[in-house]
Amino acid sequence: MTFADFQMTAELRAAPEAVRRQERSLSIVLTALVARLRSKPPQVVVTCARGSSAHAATFGKHLIERYLGIVVAAAAPSIATIYHQRLNLDGQFFLAISQSGRSGDLIEQAVAARDSGAVIACITNDAGSELAQSCEFVLPMEAGPELSIPATKTFVASLSVLARLTALWAEHEALASALRRLPDRLAAASELDWSNLIGVLTGAESLVTIGRGPTLAIAREAALKLKETSGLHAEAFSAAEFQHGPIALVSPSYPIVIFTPTDAAAAGTNQLALDLKAKGAALFATGSNVSALDQLDTLAPDQPETDAICQIQSFYAMVASLAAARGVNADEPRHLQKITRTR
Fold it and tell me: Is this structure's pTM higher than 0.90?
């Protein structure tokens, strides 16, 4: 199969319009949710998600902590579903993220959080799902049907919803303005050429992805997609955490892909790239701090969080081609199904 043959390819190219649709569809519910959050500000935001949606939650953690100064913690659904312990979330904000809205553990945790007195919202692509019915505020992804098993446009749409929520809640006009430019930038990011990665990764058995700040979620999602679409083991780290032990893995035969942020975290991430290159790493990175052969093209910086969203869009376009090169059907990874129900 070729890149163009995959359903995944068509869906990733639909992401810009999904993001464009959100501006109108989310206006009323976001205004109501933010009004509630401002009337009695929570001391903590608790997220609940699995898979790609968990990586979206990581992005939300960065956004909310960065722009609102509110601690964000990830809930362990098993506390409710397996251990039958209810969390004390009275007056706090509980945010579930799920493409399908059908995973039993997320639903049960959301119901428990609602019963404890939390403000409950979900980001989902199915506004009629059981998860949506369990939440007071439903934030639709507006991605339309996603038939390929690996999530692409729903992940991008999730990040965009989180950025819209943060921009309104924090009254951050620069982020709100960048979101208005995001659909066109996503379309342009889809056309960037990351094919210099394919030759190295086609024969690889394992690799590392690295990010920091707004790109940590991007690195985690990229690692998951390499597993799902190409049967390629990949592990994600923050640029800081990688230096606390995993750096011992560095060798010329162990590829490293760095998603460099375009904010204050760039300097340290760029320095890490230089250090890893000096150690002989098979390194590829966004940004301009590596040689032309090792550079992954990005759009000119605009706003750090939306820049990060554009990086995963460019990665998606590459990873579909990588799957083809490795002889894998990216739309139907082995052992996986579109909706995963866990408890």
Answer: yes
